[in-house]
Sequence to fold (350 residues):
Amino acid sequence: MYSPKYSVSNLILKYIGKIEASKEVIENAPLVPAYEAKFRQEAIIRTVHHGTHIEGNGLDTGEVVAVLEGEEISARDRDIQEVLNYRNVLNYIDRKGKREIGEKDLLEIHRLTVDKVLSNERAGHYRQTQVVVKNSKTGEVSFKPPEAGQVKSLVSDFLDWLNGSEAVDIHPVLKAGITHYVLAFIHPFVDGNGRTSRAFATLVLFREGYDIKKFFSIEEYFDRNAKRYYETLQSVSNQKVDSLSDRDLTGWLEYFCEGVAEELERVKQRVQKLSLDTKLKGRTGQIVLSERQVKLVEFIEANGSVNNRQWRSILRDFSDDTILRDLKDLQKKKLVKKKGSTKGAVYVLR
Fold:
């Protein structure tokens, strides 16, 4: 049976605290804009782009968007297919929900990851040969994964731990970090191991209730400094120990938790920018506003009030009648109140 070795260091505790604080703000923001779906779509784009770019995919963000929207672009067929594949992987994770995850999910995630990139005999099937990880610049072997004959038993032992009683009380972010490392170390497939490992770790987070509105992309953090990402993984893999369970994952988990904390902090700040002051939560709860109303509320928050001259400058494409209807709706929702006469009226937060 696999059993992870690590210490809950002060750094891990620090980052877990930040993660929980951001999670609380994001999930309980008193104002959730109507274009929440846009945030999710942006997270998908960032995840697909950075999750493939870190593996050498040459498409930029704009090209990734074009591919996901069904447009034709001039690029390598493999690069285009990898982007489509990773979008399908994220769709699979979304559909899975909180049900128990196991070998079938791992194999399916890999099959989707390398669909039409690897042969059918290799997609969704464990490797039957030895593979090595080489330094892309020097060509030197930087890591030699376990032998092919060990793959199935190593994966089975790990999944038994993941779904067993020992893992129940481990924090979801640590559980996801352990998952990422273990699968990357085992390297169960001839290709697509990085994307599969990261996707399966995301599946673990989502199963544990840490989808956090699906606003975040840990892939972007990894890709932003790919050298550090690979060096941190390698630092654990190069430990001179006899078994997978003997590898001390503390340094890797510190790095992983830092990434989740940093990404959620970025999302939190963005959500707060689009949210009313938390003092409103007790009276209003979750309120869905239009994009125009969000802009009005943001302006009032920043400037204290808004008048007709000001709203014309921030919503130039809309008539006064349309904006007045939005403000009237905001008054009904008890978010703003009107002060002064009709012509000289200003609107402030309640």
Summary: Strands lie at 31-33, 133-134, 141-143, 287-289, 336-339, 346-349. The CA atoms of residues 328 and 336 lie 9 Å apart. The longest helix spans residues 250-273.
